[in-house]
Amino acid sequence: xxxxxxxxxxPHMSQDEKWLAIDDYIVESFxxxxxxxxxxxxxxxxxxxxxxxxxxxxxxxLMMLARALRARKILEVGTLGGYSTIxxxxxxxxxxxxxxxxxDPRHAEVAEQNFENAGLGGQVTVRxxxxxxxxxxxxxxxxxxxxxxxxDADKPSTPDYFDWAVKLSRVGTLIVVDxxxxxxxxxxxxxxxxxxxxxxxxYARVAADPCVTATAFQTVGHKGHDGLAIVQVTQTP
Length: 237
Description:
- The protein is α/β, with parallel strands linked by helices.
- The chain has a single domain (15-233), classed as Rossmann fold (3-Layer(aba) Sandwich), CATH 3.40.50.
- Helix 2 runs antiparallel to helix 5 (105-117), helix 6 runs parallel beside helix 7 (158-167) and helix 7 packs parallel to helix 8.
- Helices cover 41% and strands 20% of the residues.
- The protein is built from eight helices and seven strands, in the order H-H-H-E-H-E-H-E-H-E-H-E-H-E-E.
- The chain has a seven-stranded mixed β-sheet, with helices on both faces.
- The radius of gyration is 19 Å and the shape is globular.
């Protein structure tokens, strides 16, 4: 009878420590030093922005999804300092463009400088103002359809961002939504937390929409315990 192999769990390491160590190992294996992204992050830190941008591995996932889609039009909801936007823009097909929506003019100002420093000024447009109003205006202007939509903004509005994203999509468009687990708080069905309520409403909205199919997965590491949802538009509304 064959014996089970010995455990390969690192000794004297808590679960959280193991998650961080694995995160570091994957980053060291698959990501190279990137002065452009490091400079963008430094600019955000210097401006006092909260450290809520996507993790580097998530940023690369966004880039790879854009490349797989051969995306020519990308919409981002929530710019902050433009870290994730740079990843998205790097995944564009030739001649493609990213439209990113940001409420705070100061955030937009820093982001635009980061885009210029990254050599992406001509490939990214920042629209400043409430994102729902900007999405409605994009729809009115027939600015879509977008090939990829990344939603990473205020969580209470996520269901409405999703609805507009579908309207601005085509069959095959991917809609990626960040922070959909929130340290497990998503399980609190009776929560009064507006962020949890908004995300649970998003789950319900997606599940009830016959025009999409979806999945989600949990993430752990330096950004804590959270997750991403990926929704594919399967038919036009």
